[in-house]
Specification:
The protein is mostly helical. It has helices spanning 4-13, 40-53, 57-82. Residues 1-26, 76-106 are annotated as: Disordered.
């Protein structure tokens, strides 16, 4: 005999069939969820800063990570642009080219 109450309870605990569902029916597309483990002092500091800014610790941490990713992408772009040779579009580095004529006087 099937226990309808147990079946209903287990169905409520089962994951959504759609991987793009938050469980509330709202979709979040291709977002990835990460867990962040912090010590108690850092966690308290994050909560305090979030409260001062009127946001949640999760939203503040997410914003900081996204800002850092943007900064890293910009720094990488600047680095590539720094090595770009404007004359012919090739990459240049700070390599030194030695004179192949070893006997030549400077």
């Amino acid at each position: 005999m099937e226990d309808h109450e147990l079946t209903s309870y287990l169905a409520a605990l089962a994951p959504e069939t759609s991987p793009e569902s938050t469980g509330t029916g709202k979709r979040f597309g291709e977002a990835q969820v990460y867990q962040l483990r912090m010590n108690l002092v850092a966690s308290a500091q994050l909560r305090e800063l979030a409260e001062q800014r009127g946001t949640s610790p999760q939203a503040l941490a997410r914003d900081w990570v996204l800002e850092r990713l943007s900064w890293e992408a910009q720094a990488a772009s600047d680095q590539r642009r720094h090595f770009k040779d404007d004359d012919n579009g090739t990459l240049s580095t700070d390599q030194h080219v030695f004179n192949q004529d070893w006997n030549a006087k400077p």
